[in-house]
Amino acid sequence: MRLILDIALTHITGRGRQTIVAMLGVAVGVGFSIAMAALMQGGQDDFVRQLVDTMPHVQVTDEQRTARRQPAEDLFSAAAISGLRPRDDRRGIINPTAALSWLDGWIPGRFAATLRAQGVLRYSGQEVGAAVIGIDPQAEPRVSPIIGDFRAGSFAALAAGGNNVVIGDTMASRLGAKIGDTITAVSSEGLSRRFKIVGLFHTGTTARDEGEAYVLQKNAQILSARPNAINVINIKLDDPNAAPTVARRIEAELGYKAIAWQEANESILEALVVRNVIMYTVVAAIMLVAGFGIFNIISTITHEKARDIAIMKSLGFTETDMRILFVLEGVAIATVGTLVGWAFGLAMIYGLSLVRFELAATGQEMTRLPIAWSMLHYLIAAAFALGSAAVAGYLPARRAARANPVDIIRGAT
């Protein structure tokens, strides 16, 4: 085996310029594939992290996945019900105290109950449609995504006394209001109540910044004429990946619709899977192109060394030895190219990580590109490079191994 390796190195070094070009081709392919994988994986991880951070891991609402079974369906084997309307549609989670106590006994995380109602906010002749959300100022900060986005005030200011409200700065700008001003909230029930602005937040998400207003839970219940009612329970788990299991247990026990963040963003997560398939397909294509360079080098060597091959076979080298020889040459070129490509990829990733820019249009600032530093990217690129090199070396090696040494020496081929 040592002799075969020495012969392989001699063949490679004998064609220095072509070997260097093939190695550089592999190095560039490996480097760019590593950088591309790091950038795309970093963007995906950052996007998923924002999903996890900006929305509840599990959200329980007062809805049900299927229509509630009617008593007539239990009494009669055949029943057709149409146009059914409740006499008094007072939606909300039934017996919320018992439900919250049950959740508190086993949920591996934090939760907060809210009452979400639709209404209109008015100030100085301006009107803005908004979701008026009644919260508990002590529980909400443990699950709210906007707790770190306050420009002024906080949730705690809601309990400072009086009727207070926290709104987004974009909504305040549309109303022409500021901290300390008093606005009027009108619910879908036609009830109105005046609130003093005690906090402003900015998340960079338009739907929140100009469409949500937070008040004390009791004020939301009074405004919507629904005393002691809640219709949403937001849950943050210690392990976000456990959300589907927790949601299924809650739905089975309480009967209300419980949506895990994975279910709420199912189409987005499926798109990310498709993007990963595309990414690794491109990586494979890059390595395939580099493999053609190696194939060209090995094919040239086998053609030029035909008489050497005949002599070695006449000295007792087997067809298997010939295959191993030229496969080793291809793998050797790919190995050196992979090591250089690793260094090139690392340098590219480091350079990309230093890129700084801002996205002022959305109100959010991203100062650096999201980069994923993972050894897996290096190993995948190396596997593609070595695999393509082995195939590129094997194809001409198989032809050379089958050649008849007598015909070669006589000049028949």
UniProtKB/TrEMBL annotation:
Keyword hit for Membrane: yes
Matches recorded under InterPro entries: ABC3_permease_C, Lipoprotein-release_system, MacB_PCD
Main location: membrane
Boundaries of every MacB-like periplasmic core domain copy: 19-252
Keyword annotations from UniProtKB, A to Z: Cell membrane, Membrane, Plasmid, Transmembrane, Transmembrane helix
One Gene Ontology cellular component: plasma membrane protein complex
Membrane topology category: Multi-pass membrane protein
Residue span(s) of domain ABC3 transporter permease C-terminal: 281-405
One Pfam family this sequence matches: FtsX
GO biological process, alphabetically ordered: lipoprotein localization to outer membrane
Transmembrane segments: 20-40, 277-303, 324-351, 371-395
Superkingdom of source: Bacteria
Subcellular location: Cell membrane
Family: Belongs to the ABC-4 integral membrane protein family. LolC/E subfamily.
PANTHER family per record: LIPOPROTEIN-RELEASING SYSTEM TRANSMEMBRANE PROTEIN LOLE
Name of the protein: ABC transporter permease
